[in-house]
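Lecture 7, part 2: worked example. A protein chain together with iron/sulfur cluster.
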Amino acid sequence: MEVQCLRVISESVTCDAACPHCPYHGGKRRAEVDQFDFQRFKRARQFALQSGAVAMEIDAKGDPLLGEWTKIYQLLSEAGEDFPQIGLITPGKGILEEQDSFLNLIGWHLTNLTLTIPHHDPKKRKALLGLNLDYKSLVSYLRDECHVVVRASCLLSQQGISSPNEAFDFIHWCRETGIQQVVFKEIEIPEEGMDQNIASWCRENALELDFQENWNFENPGHAVFYVNSLVEQNHVRPVFVFPWGETVYDIDGVNVVFEKSEKNYYGKFIRFLVLSGNRLYARWESEGTIIF
Ligand code: SF4
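Predicted complex, written out as structure tokens:
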């Protein structure tokens, strides 16, 4: 089996942000999961490494920085030597509020820090994230003090980034802000049983990425985002292709990838192994993909 990354869902917490596609936002706290099992984490790590993983990423159902920082510290210090790339995903509010603790406990272990940022326009950002942070200060702190590569994770949506021109503007805003990598993502069309308001927002706002490669989609979204029309413009340089088919671009000095939803992908490569609730899956909490 070939694997890119081990994603560790550290715990179930809440989030200060309020992304409309997310069930963990706005103070909604999920039922607590089992006590985190560090033995299971060790096994998952071994499994990922023996399957070729080069990265580990810490995530949560919510903002991992609203959980216990000592647990994150333990995860990072146990795995820090194993994986060349170590990342954490957060909207970022907790970093600005606790800069010294962040640097001491977490920052210096990381190679990459992913900020959830839905738009470059402050009004749209506020509407889609529920937060407006001082990104200039945050990014310069992360780069200069913590020495991490800063990545923006941006969901493509009808209400957010919905056209190649907007994507260009977002990329340019990232470059000016000091953000070095951008991941544009497709909305995951929700499973049955999800909160109906969230499910309808996702269905109404989904954008499908246009490139086909080896992906097999039976349920296209409501609109298509033409990645290829970006490539036709001068400033875009394809750099390499991931084994599962996505191309990584250099767009005006920013490292950019357009990430398809994993739901309908199958192939010999697993992009993320997911350790959640002390179980290891080949997809985020999908029982049908359980490994152990
Ligand atoms: S930042 Fe992440 S966890 Fe928080 S509301 Fe947005 S998607 Fe959900």
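Residues 164-177 form the longest helix (14 residues). The chain has one domain: 2-289. Keep this in mind for problem set question 3.
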